[in-house]
Recover the amino acids of this structure.
């Protein structure tokens, strides 16, 4: 399973594949993610990829295509990477027909290795909408600590949602991988 999953920095070559995946999962993703209405055509996906490429060199934020057997099935990344305080915040989404197989859990595990080893982060957070049980299960499965729920963190089309905050520290990660 794990050998079928890889991460690839988002690049312009992913534009059409990522747009097609977004389009095919629009209604499903819209229940949970706030940006679907901004993606109206592949040129919007291209603009998003261009902006993430610019961020690689400025803030260092990183977004990756998740590939399953070489095909793009979702996105994971550090949408925030604070170099001063060594904190990264992970986000992810997966096409509906790939869900239920541990793909995002594995992809997030790979991102933890990048964050703690390559970027030398001290803390990695995952912020999930409070009612998003599938999303919350990812940090819980990976051994993150639940910290708190913050109120009205995100405007999701017609309502505010609270965020459940999970985190892992570098020291905890090292003791987990040594076990
Ligand atoms: C959040 C989201 C990525 C989770 O997807 P997911 O498929 O549940 O997560 P994974 O790919 O890690 O798979 C976990 C599932 O596979 C199962 N699984 C099978 N093999 C597994 C393995 N080797 N390792 C871990 N889990 C495995 C788990 O039991 C779990 O299934 P369950 O929910 O029925 O218990 C997905 O629901 C999604 O994209 N939602 C819309 C966007 C969104 O909410 N993004 C997050 C915003 S905060």
């Amino acid at each position: 399973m794990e050998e079928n999953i890889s991460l690839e920095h988002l690049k312009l070559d992913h534009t059409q594949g990522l747009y097609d995946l977004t389009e095919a999962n629009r209604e499903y993703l819209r229940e949970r993610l706030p940006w679907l209405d901004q993606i109206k055509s592949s040129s919007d996906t291209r603009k998003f990829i261009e902006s993430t490429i610019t961020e690689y060199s400025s803030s260092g934020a990183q977004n990756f295509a998740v590939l399953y057997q070489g095909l793009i099935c979702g996105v994971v990344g550090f949408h925030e990477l604070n170099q001063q305080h060594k904190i990264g915040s992970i986000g992810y989404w997966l096409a509906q027909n790939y869900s239920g197989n541990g793909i995002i859990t594995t992809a997030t595990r790979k991102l933890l290795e990048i964050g703690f080893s390559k970027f030398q982060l001290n803390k990695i957070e995952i912020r999930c909408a409070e009612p998003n049980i599938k999303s919350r299960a990812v940090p819980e499965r990976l051994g993150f600590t639940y910290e708190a729920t913050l109120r009205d963190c995100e405007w999701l089309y017609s309502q505010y949602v609270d965020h459940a905050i999970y985190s892992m520290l570098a020291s905890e990660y090292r003791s987990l991988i040594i076990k």
User: Anything to note?
Assistant: Helices lie at 15-24, 26-30, 42-57, 103-118, 133-141, 170-178. The mean pLDDT is 95.
